[in-house]
Amino acid sequence: MDIISYLLDALTPFNLVLALVGVVLGTVIGALPGLSATMAVAVLVPFTFTMDPAAGLIALGAIYTGAIYGGAYAAILVNTPGTPSSIATTFDGFPMARRGDGGLAISLATIASVAGGIVGAVALLVLAPPLAKVALAFGPTEYFWLAMFGLTLIAALSVGNTVKGLIGACIGLFLSMIGVAVVGGDVRYTMDMQRFLAGIDLTSAIIGLYCVPVILDLVANADPHLKPSETGGLRFAEALRYSLPRKFNLIRSSVIGTVIGILPGAGGSIAGLVAYSEARRSSDDPESFGRGNPDGVIATESANNATVGGGFIPTLVLGIPGTPPDAIILGALLVQGIKIGPTLFTTDADIVYTFIWGLLIATILMLPVGLLIGRYAYSSITKVPKAVLAPTVALLTIIGAFAIHSNVDDAQLMVGLGILAWILNRYGFQPSPIVLGLVLGSIAEQGFVQTYLIGSASGRLTEMFFMRPISIGIICAALLTLLFPIWSNWKSKRRTQLAQAGEQFADDGTEIAPEPNRRDVPGMIFAGLFVVLGIAMYVGASALSPLGAVFPIAIAAALILFSILLIALNLRRPAGGVGETFDMHSGAKRRIALGVVMLAWVLLMPELGFLATSITAFVAIMVIADYDRPGAKTWAIWIVSGALICIGFWWLMANVLLLRMPVGALF
Amino acid sequence: MKTALATIFAGLLASTPLAAQSVEDFPAQAMTYIIPFNAGGESDISARFQQSEWENVTGHQVVIQYQPGAGGAQAWSQLNSLPGDGYTIMGINLPHTILQPMAGSVGYATDDLTPVHYFHYTPDAIFVRADSQFTTLQQLIDHAKANPGLVTFAGSGSNSSNQLANVRFNAQADVVTTYVPFSGTGPSITAVLGGSTMAGFNYVTSAVSQGDALRMLAVSAEERLPAFPDVPTFKELGYDIVGGAYRGVAVPASTSEDVRQRISDIISKINAQPAFVEKMESAGFALTDIGYDEMDEFVAERIKEYTDGARALGIIQ
Question: So what's the ipTM on this one?
Fold first, then answer.
């Protein structure tokens, strides 16, 4: 076969070096939240103009796949997705790291990413033209139902707390509507503030919602950030032994990732969420998901790396980029004078196949590279003293949020949302449903309105929504996911009942805390606030065009409904439950101090300059996070290394990524 | 020691404020070119074509950055807060920068922006799938006349050039059709290719990447395009629809007149590079050469034209 002969073209030393350097660079960039594959690829495109097209493509593809993989590090070690693709990695990866299995989680993520990447790249190699039809078979209706399917994961993520999960999703959907609407063109819920015009940026919201609460908890007590592992290292052999019998999970997740990667505009985050949801549904032990089940990490990481190969399928076959990095690579190809489209695989076969082989090689190189970087990242996170770790992570969140648009507004929003998320989480409103709503909101809305327009034009509205074959498949999968937790819950209750009938009072000393059936007053207060928000949303929608108003009105109604339901459920419960006395112990003081420092940091940055505020805040957070009270010499070392970290990142952003840094009055 | 002093002195010389240097030396370092959209769209691809000629023409590189958001408004509203030394320029689009401020408060007014050169436009065109029942524009119009509202057009975004073209088409051909906005050219072409909508109003550039999978029924250019000699213009079929999305380069308002003219000249020079012309035309872009000296007149004409369109879209009364 011809295809094999191109493998030799890909194996030239130059191409191998490019693949290796690309993977290393990509992994590091992906691991830093906010620094994205898109940014790295965009900066490097001009260098590929002078290269041979295939070599340039290999470099860009290697960075891309490395970045998607690298996102797992931050997800596992600091509960913050390094890229949106690894949102679902946090669900189980961080709990694993917390209990001392962080090394194992990184190894599993590496194995899964390589496996997923290989499945995606092989699909691209042998099946690209027929698979591209999948992209065309997905119309607006299918996108709408896919988003609905993603939202059903909330039922699984918030078992026992479903109403709060649903409220969280409505909040996320509301956040997704802020800004200029794609359909209808209305300016919605910006409160006339320029910063909200472009909407809530997903990446900065994710960093805020997931990572800021982690830092706030980090400084609140002297416990180590992650429990030290008993055996140490990455436990690669153990990870391999664990994942081999789970090849079915690996392959299913990789196929899901490849197919969702093919859909333009869906992307790695949705692929990870869908694969996670499927892994949970088909597991014998769904309850353990979200509490550190390794299968959750395997599912997400294999799915998101499979989207890389999958995303190239519509890019190369149809000229329709699957993801933003694909779009940049598409532009690079056009500049090279290569015509994208159905004939590409025959006219420029040498370039395309050499590139695909190169991508495959880069994917395999992730294994040694990942294990090396992973070992270093894990040991430094566990060994670095808390007083240095906390400000470094805080610096990374602020850099990440800022870097997306070179805009301090995003960093301010990130800190604000993060503090809010910590408060909400304290009262049972978890961040994940909010993130799900934010990720899926615009896809759901566009799909819904487009289906509505097309359906009404032909007078077949019901048919459009419910009768298309792929849609029916997705609806069935969604119903399964939605009803399965309820069914399994019922089944396990039934089992306990049966057991109790035989052996009365046997479970007297169970460790599982009974559900707090007392009245949840703070929850009710929040629900009251959300009713007000819902009414404000409804009133705000009245000024919009009909196309732009339908979704806000639906979400406002749902938010009001769920909030009233929450209040009503609590009114039926006996009063005087969780006695909330807010005591100002030292942990709370440190938390408040950290929140204030971070807010001041982002608010003063445009006035005083990036370096001045960062170094000051870094030292301040060191003081807040310090429990060891070391000598002056250690402090001196810490402060110098803090300043070096700040300057290093400033240099990276200003001179390598060429971002416009805030200068302000000082520096 | 002497060499060290000389190095320091040379370093000081090199760091003399750029403003002090003469305009003839501009640019003396790499420039930054901000694209207010995501990568992969027409703005990005045409800028990448320019980028590959930039160093030949100016002797320095250009760095392309993306600042997407709010259909470009996010970046345009910040344009004037950027330094006006000429080293930061931004892509600018019509009708976006005229229609957006009309539609609502987007943080800038059309007059706030300083375009120095519009270097091309992408005509709108009606697309159908290769296996569609429509082979001529007349067949589509007949179908739309017989079934008001039934014909669906996919297009990129609301209040966009695509929707404006659709509104004009409805008025000129005296038909009622349904416009379905998508979040960009990619998704809207996908909808046409996949048969979600009957037809699409898209930019001609899409035809190049899709080859035989799509059929163009008419284009909104003055004359037939070199890349598509067989596709008629709306004008020759009797409908007065000419235009599309214009793309150019803008600078912060604080940029000096000399530098504005200089940047306009650079873009003009790139526009004349044979390799650039070849790439642009074969990708379906229609080159224009509207420099800084003709800018006021050009923008005033477009404002007049789009105001009528905005009235038809219901953006203004």
Answer: 0.83
